[in-house]
Amino acid sequence: MSDNPSAEPAHTSFTFSYRQSLLLVFCCTLFGGVAQYLFKLGTTQAFQAFQAGGVNWIALCTDYPLWAGLSCYGISTLLMVLALRDGELSLLYPVISLTYVWVMFLSVLLLHEPLTFWKVGGVTLICGGVALLGMNGKKAAQ
Amino acid sequence: MKTPMSSVLLVLLASFIGSFGAVFLKWGAGSVSRNLKTILLNWRLAMGVALYLFSTVFYLMALRQGELSLLFPMVSLGYVWTLLWSKLFFGEPFSRRKIAGLALIFAGLILLNHGRG
To answer: What is the domain extent for residue B10?
Structure first.
């Protein structure tokens, strides 16, 4: 792309090291997990606001968990975009699977959902699958 | 709280709609340049974002009833759709690794649904 290999990438005035990218993705999964928990808390009120033939704007606007969840989701997406800009997809993708782990923790601890063999097994397989798909990105990029 | 089949179906529908959001973003991203107009006046990008928002509504509807620890991982079906569309619409090749990844995700989804009781 650039004539000078040591020059900074043209797309940005600053870059993240691999460690910084890893930290960004880690924070992205934390925000992503908390967002899911907040969505679950806020969703009932959100849909109650749409009942009885109209929109109850007060109920919708005061659905704080929903808005907090959407904010966390936005922050999480932003962190991921920043991390993926400079970091290698194959190394960062397995970390993204951590979101599943955080959601499982939060569901069991705060929502008192049962932890079962089927859930742990299913989520483990899905994490493995997501990591495998991410590794593909590395091969394609090289 | 038992997770009803209706919630599972809503999550699967949300993942399906969301995967088309990615298709439109990819389609629209091709004509993006440094000029802000190429982003803001890009109907394909706008369509992609709209589809993502639309899929979120279905996901939130699904979350009303059922367990988060079961429904959230099921969103990963979106990866399966996305790979399918990448092949169909953009001619991106399947590789053994991709197929293995999809198989693992699929197996995980079957386990999760089996554990729904």
So the answer is: 5-114
